[in-house]
Design goal:
127 residues; mainly beta; five-stranded mixed barrel; three-stranded antiparallel sheet; 1 helix
Amino acid sequence: MSIRRQLLVACLLTIVPVMGCGRALNLPTWSPGPNAGLPGALIEGTLLFEDACFWISRSGTSADRVALLWPPGTTAVLDPPRVLDAGGSVIAQAGRRLEIGGGFVEMAAPGCATGGAWLVGEIIEDR
């Protein structure tokens, strides 16, 4: 079975409730199953925060946005919208250009109206 198929079969999506500015934010995350690897692709774009979800957009607009599924332990805070790693360090902020390692999967990000999502593996660059 291919790594991509193992990841799709074993991917367990969870919603991590996060508090920020007095309201909850649901951040979709992914968890790999046993023997599942992460796709080795790269996407570059602007991090958007719209409709209570984080998205990556190559054009910087909603026209081509792709929902993001974050690694386990990732959280988010608002004002301004930003994403924190498991240790509490800011790894991404809405409005910034990013390069994100990972891969696209044909599954919806919970809470985000989408036909597919990008599995975030690593933030390569935050410009």
